[in-house]
């Protein structure tokens, strides 16, 4: 908003200057000399006008990006609320995210959590918080686990269909996920799930 006001102010100043000069100039003013000066002023005013318009354009671009980010976050928040509700009730989970193949309830819930984790990475990548390089590091850690690999093996085709129909960043995201998954599988077996303990052994 500040850039818009600054740009409009500069444009107003540039437009009004000739009229102000005409109003305050003495009657015996050498207008021929002023005409030469005004030509030089005109060149400067063109530059100032360009700067002002650039400021307005940058401000509008920033506002559009902020609005898009806010809208995506609102959608993401709604999705998380639905996921929380579904995870709390198996019947609701069947309605919202039915399994694509026979699976235990616990495993399906675990797959849903890993899918939400990927969704969080996608959101951060979309808004520029994660570069390609950082995203690759995050995905390498993600696919070290057995559950994450199972989830992508079962549900990856759905992700591909959805992301390939999206924009450039969506397509780049899903292709990188596929690439890091294949690299993880080629590197060897996933880390097995280690169960929690009520009272873990202490080193002392």
Commentary on this structure:
The chain has 7 helices and no strands. By secondary structure, it is mainly alpha-helical. α2 (31-87) runs antiparallel to α4 (105-126) and α6 (146-164) runs antiparallel to α7 (168-187). It is elongated and about 90 Å long.
Low-confidence stretches: none
Helix content: over 70%
Quote the average pLDDT: 80
User: What structural category characterises the helix and strand content?
Assistant: mainly alpha
Shape: elongated
Roughly what fraction of the amino acids lie in strands? under 5%
Q: Please provide the ordered H/E string of secondary-structure elements.
A: HHHHHHH
Largest sheet: none
> Which radius of gyration do the C-alpha atoms yield?
30 Å
What is the oligomeric state here?
Answer: single chain
The first-to-last residue Cα distance is: 60 Å
Tally of alpha and pi helices: 7
Number of strands: 0
Q: Which descriptors would you attach to this protein?
A:
204 residues; mainly alpha; 7 helices; 0% strand
Please write out the topology.
Layout: H1 2-24, H2 31-87, H3 90-96, H4 105-126, H5 132-142, H6 146-164, H7 168-187
Summarize this entry quickly:
This protein is mainly α and 204 residues long. The chain contains 7 helices and no strands.
